[in-house]
Amino acid sequence: MVKKKMIAMLLAGGQGSRLGVLTAKVAKPAVSFGGKYRIIDFPLSNCVNSGVDTVGVLTQYRPLELNTHIGIGIPWDLDRRVGGVSVLPPYEKTSDTEWYTGTANAIYQNLEFMEKFNPDYVLILSGDHIYKMDYEEMLENHKNKGADVSIAAMPVPWEEAPRFGIVVADANKRITAFQEKPKEPKSNLASMGIYIFNWPVLRDALIALKDTPSCDFGKHVIPYCFDNDKKLYTYEFTGYWKDVGTLHSYWEANMELVDLVPEFNLYEEFWPIYTQTDHMLPEYMAPSASAERCIIGGGSEIYGKLHHSVIGSDVTVGEGSEITDSIIMAGAKIGKNVRMKKAIIAENVVIGDNVVLGEGTYAESKLDTRVYASDLVTISENSVVPDDVKIGVNTAIVGVTTKEDYPGGCLEDGGFIVKAGEK
């Protein structure tokens, strides 16, 4: 048995249904971000920058792209003989086989993995947030307080507090109450879904709650520890943290990267964000091209005009096209004379010539009002849009579409096209 001070368990199995067609074929942590990265790169980089060299990544929904991206952990220096990164999907057991049914249930099903390292502490992370955090500082705070459980938390606007788990703490930061998505919050200090547990405390709680349906940390494990007189403390975080759980928040976080003074800096030498990178040619800007406040990935060929946009690697933007306030992911091909505003174009999408995207008047979504509730155009990976069509705002497209899919050459505001066989 190899003894580790602290290991991390990274929950990366979620579908991310509020990202709509962006997660139709990939898990949310595998969604591209910032032109070069994937969302999971941020907690993985935080781990290695914090000296945490043993990480279990729990996958479930659409894991292929995520597994391929993580590989054996080389970009994050997690290709270790002892420890390193391990991908942990649900697996067949001798007695029964179960999908992960909740965040805590997923951790419980991997007790053997954690016991192999006999850690002093276990760090629980979500794979779907954008932030930089030194987990070593959080651990020092945990030890100094004599805590059994520490919860990273940060203040949020009061009107947003009902969306989160809310902690109430005394002057010494000891938690006196915990509310899971309360209608009437007693505090605006929101849990970030980042926990440090003393290993025996976590193990005992998971075993005690093993038969709880859809066992979850916020709903079950934290209240259990609280009710059993464990010492829970908050670790208040003051840096940048973004839950990119909705299409608008995902778009907004990308757009913040190309602000004149970015709130979130990807280029700090002392806290780098690592990722799996292909060997790409430099980007090419044609004489007809221009770019204003943009991120442009390697291997891209730009013949049109870009404004305040995030462009992934190996993207082509045709001559005469104008892209504004948009995200175009790796491998996408944008035709000639395209006008695009506030669009999210997923990987390997093909947009034909003379297409207009994102011009219109907001209308309620005919697909899902919970997911599509802003003036964005969202196109799923590997989709195709033909020449000479117009796509309105608050729209979604999945699949290889043809002109017959656009009555009068248009997809109306609030409309959608999901081709047969796609979901």
Which overall shape is indicated by the principal axes computed on the Cα atoms?
A: globular
Task: Compute the number of strand runs.
Answer: 33
Radius of gyration: 23 Å
| N-end to C-end Cα span | 45 Å
Largest sheet: 7 strands, mixed
Report on this model:
With 423 residues, the protein is α/β, with parallel strands linked by helices. It contains eight helices and 33 strands. Strands 5-4-1-6-11-8-12 form a seven-stranded mixed β-sheet, sandwiched between helices. The chain is globular and about 65 Å long. The model has no long low-confidence stretch (mean pLDDT 90).
Task: Briefly characterize the structure.
This protein has 423 residues and is an alpha/beta fold. The chain has eight helices and 33 strands.
Features:
single chain, 423 residues, alpha/beta, 7-stranded mixed β-sheet, 7-stranded parallel β-sheet, 8 helices, 27% strand, globular
Which helices and strands occur, and which strands form pairs?
Blueprint: E1 6-11, E2 32-33, E3 37-38, H1 41-49, E4 54-58, H2 64-70, E5 84-88, H3 103-108, H4 111-117, E6 121-126, E7 129-131, H5 135-145, E8 149-155, E9 165-169, E10 175-180, E11 189-198, H6 199-208, H7 217-227, E12 232-236, E13 241-243, H8 247-256, E14 284-285, E15 290-292, E16 295-296, E17 301-302, E18 305-307, E19 310-311, E20 316-317, E21 322-324, E22 327-328, E23 333-334, E24 339-341, E25 343-345, E26 350-351, E27 356-357, E28 377-379, E29 384-385, E30 390-391, E31 395-398, E32 410-411, E33 416-418
Parallel strand pairs: 1-4, 1-6, 4-5, 8-12, 14-17, 15-18, 16-19, 17-20, 18-21, 19-22, 20-23, 21-24, 22-25, 23-26, 24-27, 25-28, 26-29, 27-30, 28-31, 30-32, 31-33
Antiparallel strand pairs: 2-3, 6-11, 7-13, 8-11, 9-10
